[in-house]
Amino acid sequence: MDILFQTLPPMMFALACAIAVMAGVVKGLVGFAMPMVLISGLSTFIAPDVALAGLILPTVVTNVIQALRQGPRAALVSLRRFWLFLTAMFLALIGSAQLVPMLDMQTMFLMIGVPVVGFALLQISGKAFHGLRQSRVLDAGIGGFAGFIGGVSGVWGAPTVAYLTGLQTEKHEQMRAQGVIYGVGAVALFGAHLKSGVLRPETAPLSIALVPAAVLGMWIGGRLLDRIDQKMFRKATLLVLLIAGMNLVRRGLVG
């Protein structure tokens, strides 16, 4: 904790935990968007690479919980169905993660902000990709694209959700598949950024410290799921993500 508070004052740490709780609530309700909420929120007051490090372990832990919610056998079914998607995502993520130390802050803000804004606008507009058929080409192409932006920004949910929605995946299977895909991606991200230097002794304590807050938020989200209008809440969440993403794009363009 001493190392943590040397780089992040207590008030900022409390704010980071509040953002992690909010990210967990969103994930508990809709099954995704935790990395987008975390990277958008944390990057407004700490360096992008530190924010990226901060989201890694909370993302790993919450996605393992989500993937195994219906048991290991069900998770294995999703793993087998999307093995090519996962392989392409894994390889692209490992490669793109090594670019992070070479990018300046403005470039990182843009690479994080643009996918967030694009995803939010797509979902708010009600437009999605329907009627797709799963194929090796789509699995490899969309998985590779998701991995590339995920390695740089920690955010790979946008293309994944769009693809699963386009395949008209059954609700419970989609929630499970998202957990499996994001979980594998998060583990890959963890390993990749140990190598890239983003996750290091100075930044790892923040990532560890945010895990309990993220899990608490996910538990709250799960409890609220049956009590509120999820559709309206999701729209409000997407609006917040849109505003946060636009702020990141602004910072990337004007410094």
Give the SSE layout.
Elements: H1 2-7, H2 10-30, H3 34-42, H4 48-67, H5 72-81, H6 83-97, H7 105-124, H8 136-153, H9 157-166, H10 171-196, H11 204-224, H12 230-254
Helix pairs in contact: 2-3, 2-11, 3-4, 3-12, 4-10, 4-11, 5-10, 6-8, 6-10, 7-12, 8-9, 9-10
Write a structural description.
The structure is a single chain. This protein is mostly helical and 255 residues long. It has one domain (2-254). Helices cover 79% and strands 0% of the residues. It is built from twelve helices and no strands. The protein has helices at 2-7, 10-30, 34-42, 48-67, 72-81, 83-97, 105-124, 136-153, 157-166, 171-196, 204-224, 230-254. The longest helix has 26 residues, at 171-196. The chain is globular, with a radius of gyration of 17 Å. The two termini are 31 Å apart. The relative contact order is 0.22. The model has no long low-confidence stretch (mean pLDDT 86).
What are the salient characteristics of this protein?
single chain; 255 residues; mainly alpha; 12 helices; 0% strand
